[in-house]
Amino acid sequence: MRWSHAFIPTLRDDPADAEAASHRLLVRGGYVRQLMSGVYSLLPIGFRVRSKVMGIIREEIDAIGGQELLLPALHPREIWERTGRTETMADILFTLNDLRGGAAVLGPTHEEIFTTIAAELTSYKQVPQLWYQVQTKFRDEPRPKAGLLRVREFTMKDSYSFDVDAAGLDLQFDRHFAAYKRIFERLGVTAIPVEASSGSMGGSDSVEFMVPSPAGEDDVAHCPACDYAANVERAASAIPSVKDDPGPDQPERFPTPGVRTIADLVEFEGGAGADRQIKTLIYMLDGEPTMVLLRGDHELQEQKLQDASGAVEVRPARPEEIHALIGASAGSLGAVGVTGPRILADLQLAERTNMVTGANVDHHHLRGVDVGRDISVSEWLDLRTVVAGEGCPVCSEPLEVFRGIEAGHIFKLGTKFSEALGATVLDADGIAVPLVMGSYGIGIERNMAAVVEMNHDERGIVWPVSVAPYEVVITVVNVDDEVTMTVAERLYEDLQFAGIDVLIDDRAERPGVKFNDAELIGIPYRITVGPRGLADGIVELSERSTGDRSELEIETAADEVARLVVEKR
Fold first, then answer.
1. How many CA atoms lie within 13 A of 374 on its CB side?
2. Which residues, 6+ apart, have CB-to-CB distance to 102 below 8 Å?
3. Please, are residues 10 and 521 in contact by the beta-carbon 8 Å criterion?
4. Which residues contact 449 (CB under 8 A, 6 or more apart)?
5. How far is CA 402 from CA 192, 254, 425, in A?
6. Contacts of 138 (CB under 8 A, 6+ apart)
7. pLDDT of 12-68, one tens digit each?
8. Residue 71 C-beta-side C-alpha neighbours within 13 Å
9. Domains and CATH numbers, the chain
10. CA distance 279 to 300
């Protein structure tokens, strides 16, 4: 491609609303443009990168037996109602009615639709099956941000496995796990597999592939010693137990004027340390008021609460709901002597004695609370958020917590969707059994952004050869010099003949502008052709990732560069 004919609208300045490096550089480099909030146009070089990412993914999924389909993005709402996900995914569903009043959904994912196709399978002899597509998804993201990392319209490779038993699913899951590791290695990103919540997908096991980045939106607990890793929505930790004094025979009420928070009670004369307080929260779980108890110095992880309770809608109770239930305001709440509402307690409160909690009377608390004696706990659950420095649940070494980008997610769905949609086959005994399913997703544009997050510097993007829009750029220092242009054109033709994606910068611009643009858009190799070098029979080769420069003889330059590129693909 000739740069003089290409549409590569680079920008000198960063976009005002860009915080993530990938957002800033993909806009400045002429890869994308925002059409509306959370919706982006891919410009020519952005489309080339996307195509290469898709190509790598297709190769690896094909290698484990994937068969590519293409299913509609417009779905009848009724199918989603049958699986209950019009409720569990109501916050992100784009819904509409056609001219005849038919209700439809723009697909945020395709489990339901693939399952309707799988319903045509009739016998165990027809499985296993592994199907996939690369399709547009729509999610009504309330707060799009960070460029391609959090959007409302995007492309995903989603694959689905169908087996007759759990053993078959395990095999498909493991094959996808290995394929995803190869995909991320080829993309040039470090993606750490972590235990994760299945959320609205349901099912049993779930693994996310997280790319460490400050632009990420998920926190991951990771043990450098043994490689335990889990999204904090699921992570566990080992923390020292607290030894309590026995305390009185029954709780004692005492006034706490002005005390509204855990920190207030720590400072209050006659109060208690945060680790000796019981934090009482009121949540509405599918409309049912529920008391949630944690140690005062611990934070609730809402996803753990949702997963453990099985609730679809989870939200903090409003002040008026709290007062109607307890008769007191937040800051004075406690579960001592409470009957009626469900009481869920974190495991770290088990066997605790001589604790302090709210008295359910404004501006009063109770001391000397024995959790087992004084509180009727309905269920003991792991509800707390893990923090850095706590012990690894596997080896007890300190955990680190980092921000990460979810680059891929694989799920063991089981029979949730096949049972709801009637996708069954006859087993070897002639008995109808629901298909056992897995779901495996990886975002295309999100991975483009993740590559940039891990591969950039102060000058711009540093693409790996595997996904770069062009592998080599030939920078012509003086396009008005006939000899220079002749050599550059010959190199251009030789590299094209060798199968190299090459861009020749034949613009009538200053050399500095050309060098800056080449570094900004991140082409892995740059060949500089200028009169000074040609006088000595050489051209200069620069490698974007290292900054290394070398001189190549004109006659062998194309072959040497082609060899370097092929080795890095």
1. 25
2. 76
3. yes
4. 20, 22, 23, 26, 146, 147, 148, 149, 215, 405
5. 11, 42, 44
6. 73, 94, 106, 107, 108, 152, 153
7. 999 988 989 999 999 999 999 999 999 999 999 999 999 999 999 999 999 999 999
8. 26
9. 50-213+402-448 (3.30.930.10), 252-381 (3.90.960.10), 470-568 (3.40.50.800)
10. 10
The kind and range of the H/E element at 96 are strand 94-97
What the block records as the tokens of 566 is: 């092929």
| Three-state DSSP string of 509-568 | CCHHHHHHHHHHHCCCEEEEECHHHHCCCEEEEEECCCCCEEEEEHHHHHHHHHHHHHHH
- How far from the centroid of its chain's Cα atoms is residue 143's Cα? 15
Q: Which residues pair with 369 in a beta bridge?
A: 355
Residues of the chain with pLDDT under 70: 198-204
**Residue 330 structure tokens:** 């937040």
Q: How do the residues of the chain divide into helix, strand and coil, expressed in percent and rounded to 5?
A: 30, 30, 40
Q: Is 218 exposed, middle or buried (0-12, 13-18, 19+ CB in 10 A)?
A: middle
Mean pLDDT of the chain: 95
Cis peptide bond upstream of 289, omega within 30:
no
Do residues 515 and 536 lie in contact, with contact meaning Cβ atoms separated by under 8 Å? Answer: no
Structure tokens at 182: 């190869």
Q: What is the CA radius of gyration of the chain?
A: 29
Give yes or no for a contact between 369 and 357, defined as CB atoms under 8 angstroms apart.
yes
CA dihedral for 97, 103, 105, 110, sign (positive or negative): negative
DSSP state of 399: P
Length of the chain: 569
pLDDT of res. 553? 96
> Do 453 and 211 touch, CB atoms closer than 8 A?
yes
| Residue 94 dihedral angles phi and psi, to the nearest 5° | -85, 120
Q: Which stretches of 188-292 are DSSP H helices?
A: 262-267
List helix spans (H) across 312-402: 319-326, 371-374
> 């590559």: which residue's tokens?
451
CA neighbor of 289 nearest in space, from 331, 333, 332 = 333
Sign of CA dihedral 336, 339, 341, 343: positive
pTM of the model: 0.90
Other Cβ atoms closer than 10 A to 135: 19
Output the six-digit token pair for 444: 């295309």
Q: Where are the beta strands (DSSP E) in 273-327?
A: 278-285, 288-295, 314-316
Cα first-last separation, the chain: 20
